[in-house]
Amino acid sequence: MADERYDRKELFLRGLAFLKRRLAAAVEKRVDVVPRLHLRPPGALVESLFLSTCEGCSACALACPHGAIRLVGGASAHADCTPAIIPAQAPCRLCPDVPCSRACPTGALVPIVKEDIKIGLAVVSREICRAWLCDPCDACGRTCPIGNRALVQESGQGPRVIEDGCTGCGLCTHVCPTSPRAIRIKPI
């Protein structure tokens, strides 16, 4: 009878451990159920955590030497007065010391090194892009700080984005001469 109780206890503990693993996996999948609507500064937590941690203090915006970070309104009260980058107005310049991420007092932005910045992904609209419409233009390619590791343009073709290399800084969007812009940054 003692063996039977031990087996039940072991079975219970194994079942509990299994449920704990399943619950942890489910929670991990749901951590970022809030889609990112704005391009956040370098070092931003996943959107749901970012919105619950950021107090809208503007320390990151004040630390940005290029004025790229602005406080924006949001689709919800949680997103009101939160920092974002609007590349068409002022792109992220990939500062070597990333002062915005170090300035955050709440931890909504975690300190990051320049080489690890990944805030978005450039997306080219071939229907609008001058180069894809056979009109000579290489404004985005000439401006990209990552160069051909993020954006390549073959002769007679328009730009192609290399997903692994693109940081989402938005310099390409900023210099795009079309209206509307043929290249935009999708937040990640």
Residue stretches low in confidence (pLDDT < 50, at least 5 long) are none
CATH topology of the largest domain: Alpha-Beta Plaits
* Distance separating the two termini: 57 Å
| Total of DSSP H or I helical runs spanning 4+ residues | 6
Quaternary structure type: single chain
| Helix-and-strand structural type | alpha+beta
CA gyration radius, whole angstroms:
22 Å
SSE topology sketch:
Layout: H1 2-30, H2 47-53, H3 59-63, E1 69-72, E2 82-85, H4 99-103, E3 120-124, H5 139-143, E4 151-153, E5 159-161, H6 171-175, E6 183-187
Antiparallel strand pairs: 1-2, 3-6, 4-5
Task: Please describe what this structure looks like.
The chain has a two-stranded antiparallel sheet with strand order 1-2. The mean pLDDT is 88. It has six helices and six strands, in the order H-H-H-E-E-H-E-H-E-E-H-E. Helices cover 30% and strands 13% of the residues. The longest helix has 29 residues, at 2-30. It is of the alpha+beta class and 188 residues long. It is globular, with a radius of gyration of 22 Å. It folds into two domains: 47-116, 2-Layer Sandwich (Alpha-Beta Plaits), CATH 3.30.70; 120-187, Alpha-Beta Plaits (2-Layer Sandwich). A hairpin with a 5-residue loop joins strand 4 (151-153) and strand 5.
Q: Features of this protein?
A:
alpha+beta, single chain, 188 residues, 6 strands, two-stranded antiparallel sheet, Alpha-Beta Plaits, 6 helices, 2 domains, two-stranded antiparallel ribbon
